[in-house]
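Sequence, please.
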């Protein structure tokens, strides 16, 4: 089987669909031969990127692409504050958590100081967001004595065996665990005026009851606090409160997965859960934490982590290494020094307003939503019925790539443009995004009606 066919990715490269230049085709064959069948490439015409700089990715021919998708390089690609911190530390000491060292302690103090309203008291480090959720699940099991997990219907939380079992966005070929219950994503655009908070709470309560009925004790409710792979669902702020109360009443933990919304992307707070005024037992973090350096982890309350700490020791060779901690400290400094949260709020709004104006002439745009530097554009074949238009979305994503702007799509219907630029995006660059999107929408409409 070819590695690159994936019906679960709207923008996956599909062999034979697009005529590729010889160099690209040869590189894809070499990659398939060397890396095997599990990897996927993005776009019908995959990119070969050799350099990154700010919001730009640059290919071998020197063509610059505006990267509005990469929420890892959240400060911009190769930000000098981070690359300098990494170089300085790697020349001094690159080692693990078996020794005392200041960087990890300073990082823990800095991270925990971002959540004063909670009881989160400890930081544990991992290398990836998947590991963070995996460890969070182990902590939840140890604390509750249960195994039951509740997630939303198109959630993604990671790749490990345990976590893939509660990552339904991996598609029907990856089995969910018998201890996993899915609840509908809280989609305001499709709620027909219902109270979203009430509805989500009811759905979580029903999932808890169903777990119990099957003899499964609930361990945790785990949500990405902006529901990124469910289609970016931030509104109305506060709707998560009832559901978090419900899981706590049932003896389970509430875990906020901040791998996507964390580190200021919402433009209002450091973490997405903070806009809901809730108190998680565990918060998992990752992606932008090292601006590209692999560093992730979790913050937990003393109560939640007590049993796990007693029964297991935790060591993860590369996690919490001095170099990754130095990178993460530089990220925290830069968010503050460059006022990036404010920029995320200001330029994110400009993006959403500009795209909303396009909806006047482009009937495929059913909804424009988001918060901070998260923008979702839901594309539908009919505004009344709100039917997802996956084909149209794929045309738009691939046309944008051809025109030099990189984004992707998400949600169950694969019909929501997912826009997550680096937090440094300027007003002028937001203008490029809006202009290019207008062209791509016009192009897609012409293709569909031809
Ligand atoms: N949680 C969420 C919400 C994610 O989006 C991701 C990655 N896309 C993960 C966890 C897993 O992180 P990683 O890829 O670093 O393992």
């Amino acid at each position: 089987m070819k590695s690159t066919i994936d019906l679960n990715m709207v923008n996956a490269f599909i062999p034979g669909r697009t005529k590729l230049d010889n160099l690209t085709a040869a590189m894809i064959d070499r990659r398939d031969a060397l890396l095997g069948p599990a990897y996927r490439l993005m776009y019908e015409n995959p990119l070969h990127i050799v350099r990154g700089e700010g919001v730009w990715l640059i290919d071998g021919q020197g063509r610059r692409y505006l990267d509005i998708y990469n929420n890892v390089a959240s400060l911009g690609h190769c930000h000098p504050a981070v690359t300098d911190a990494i170089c300085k530390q790697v020349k001094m000491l690159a080692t693990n958590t078996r020794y005392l060292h200041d960087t990890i302690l300073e990082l823990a103090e800095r991270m925990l100081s971002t959540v004063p309203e909670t009881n989160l008291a400890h930081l544990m480090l991992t290398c990836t967001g998947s590991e963070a959720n995996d460890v969070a699940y182990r902590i939840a099991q140890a604390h509750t004595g249960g195994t039951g997990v509740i997630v939303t219907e198109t959630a993604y939380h990671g790749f490990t065996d345990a976590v893939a079992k509660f990552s339904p966005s991996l598609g029907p070929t990856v089995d969910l665990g018998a201890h996993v219950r899915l609840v509908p994503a809280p989609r305001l655009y499709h709620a027909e005026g219902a109270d979203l908070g009430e509805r989500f709470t009811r759905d979580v309560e029903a999932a808890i009851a169903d777990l119990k009925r099957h003899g499964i004790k609930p361990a945790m409710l785990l949500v990405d606090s902006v529901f990124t792979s469910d289609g970016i669902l931030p509104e109305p702020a506060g709707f998560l409160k009832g559901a978090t109360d419900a899981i706590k009443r049932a003896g389970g933990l509430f875990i906020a997965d901040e791998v996507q919304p964390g580190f200021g992307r919402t433009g209002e707070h450091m973490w997405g859960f903070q806009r809901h005024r809730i108190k998680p037992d565990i918060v998992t973090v990752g992606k932008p934490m090292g601006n590209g350096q692999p560093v992730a982890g979790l913050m937990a309350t003393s109560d939640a982590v007590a049993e796990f700490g007693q029964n297991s020791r935790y060591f993860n060779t590369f996690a919490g290494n001095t170099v990754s901690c130095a990178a993460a400290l530089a990220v925290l400094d830069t968010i503050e020094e460059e006022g990036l949260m404010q920029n995320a709020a200001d330029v994110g709004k400009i993006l959403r307003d500009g795209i909303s104006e396009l909806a006047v002439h482009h009937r495929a745009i059913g909804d424009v939503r988001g918060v901070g530097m998260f923008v979702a554009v839901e594309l539908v074949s009919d505004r009344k019925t709100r039917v997802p238009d996956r084909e149209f979305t794929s045309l738009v994503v691939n046309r944008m790539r051809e025109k030099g702007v990189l984004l992707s799509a998400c949600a169950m219907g694969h019909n929501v443009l997912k826009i997550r630029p680096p937090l440094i995006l300027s007003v002028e660059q937001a203008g490029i995004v809006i202009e290019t999107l207008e062209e791509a929408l016009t192009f897609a409409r012409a293709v569909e009606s031809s």
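The longest helix spans residues 427-449.
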